[in-house]
Amino acid sequence: MLTPPESPGLPLLSVSLPDPGDGTGPLAVDPKKFRDELVVAADWVADYLSRIRQRPVAQPVPLEHRRALAEGGMPQEGQDLGALLEFVGQAVAPYPTGNGHPAFFAWINSPPSPAGVIAELLATAVNATCGMGEHALMDLERGVVRDLAALAGMAPATGGVLTSGGSMANLLCLGAARTWFLRGHEATDGPAYDQAHARLTAYHSDQAHMSVAKAAATIGLPPWRLRAVPTTAERRMDVEALKAMIDADLASGLLPFCVVSNLGSTASGAVDPIEAITQVCRSRGMWHHADGAWGGLGAMVPELAPLYRGVADLDSLTVDPHKTLSVPVGCGAALVTDPDRLREAFTYRASYLDGDQDWPWMSDYTIELTRPGTRALTLWATLHQLGRAGVSSLLQHYQDLARYLSRRVQAHPALELCSDGPLPVVCFRLAAGTALDRPEARADLHTAVAARVQARGHAYLATVCHDGETVLRACFCNYLTTADDVDTLLEEVRAAAQHLSTA
Ligand SMILES: *Cc1c(COP(=O)(O)O)cnc(C)c1O
């Protein structure tokens, strides 16, 4: 052990400290200047959002511009507030990929809710670290998680966390399922863990979102321990096939631990038979996770509600408020019927981080420690702008628009409906035997039609693989979209097909 040198008579502090300064380091800004700039920014935001409809749906980013942005490069000396507003106006805002435009039908990207935009700014000012300790926004997160679970129709004790999105929520829920299963088999460490872990097997339908495979890989499940269960004609998981696959795996000594069902498949809006899958899980000691990233709140729509019976008996559910609810990205949620299952999987301690038994930290339920409060406040603001009634009518609006598109497709002599839902996704193709048809290359024609529609900038849709064929796909999740936008889409498809078939 070191002992301090004898130094009687010497002054305790002979080093000179640097001048502490006057509290105006390089980040400090004159309060008036800050306020003025915020006002300009607020004007810019209001202007930008109010003129969404006037802009092209998408504007390709010129290659030189992409390169310049991607290259990086910061100045030696700082600029006033980073010259941010000018930069955003010139370099960022002109190049959105449709997000927010009411005639964007390609992917599940919605415009931000007005209350959410304001909440994002306010939460950023508060800048809470919602992982540990106490913060009002962390308690608010517990509350909005409960509100979301109630909207979905889950059991009252349900808890969970907000995440960056559906991919992260799927990962957390699979992690919770894995730990739960291993604990149940007394295989949480040592050789028992090694042996059990290598045999863990999970199941999803052949319509599952690829984030499920990513999540499985991340928790250490190789692709050959993740089974794709075939689907029926309506693209719902074939429960008899599921049972047969699980039982064959059990017979060969594997450990089936989890089924992931779809509440709204991304390609076509299919909802798996929840109750039947839960029954399979219960009888075989497995966890039932549902991926409802964009369709998880379907129970709020009367015409869909019957498909959502049994949500209260799920073990976990992924919901993405940044999809159908228009909460600014990224806001997803991992909802778990027994939230202790998340804690068992994700509570770790450090000597400098103690935790709280009565009010467990939010970091105990996830793999993030420092977490933003923006998710909780933007979700809260959006839910309070909507109310329960608003959530129902918003989701109903999407159903109505999808039904309108499918009716128009069916009535159109040059188009054929491939699938419509039940969630608001409509897949369609150019009809065989019409002037628009080139039978030798109809799939290529669909790709070319989508590309031409996208390039013209009046509407935007995507393609999807449907029964092995590339067809057109439109989905609905923009509160600004009207029937006129749907008409514009069809007119654009017709014009593009005409152009290509006569070219
Ligand atoms: C969008 C989506 C995801 C992924 O969610 P992110 O928020 O993009 O990470 C997962 N599952 C389904 C069914 C989705 O539609």
Describe the structure.
It contains 14 helices and 11 strands. By secondary structure, the protein is an alpha/beta fold. It folds into 3 domains: 67 residues, dopa decarboxylase, N-terminal domain; 243 residues, Type I PLP-dependent aspartate aminotransferase-like (Major domain) (Aspartate Aminotransferase, domain 2, 3-Layer(aba) Sandwich), CATH 3.40.640; 114 residues, Aspartate Aminotransferase, domain 1. Strands 1-7-6-5-4-2-3 form a 7-stranded mixed beta sheet, sandwiched between helices. β2, α8 and β3 form a beta-alpha-beta unit. α4 packs antiparallel against α12, α5 packs parallel to α12 and α13 crosses α14. The longest helix is centred in the last third of the chain and has 38 residues. The N terminus is likely disordered. Pyridoxal-5'-phosphate (PLP) binds next to α6. Keywords: Decarboxylase, Lyase, Pyridoxal phosphate. GO terms for molecular function: aromatic-L-amino-acid decarboxylase activity; pyridoxal phosphate binding. This is Cytochrome d ubiquinol oxidase subunit I. Its cofactor is pyridoxal 5'-phosphate.
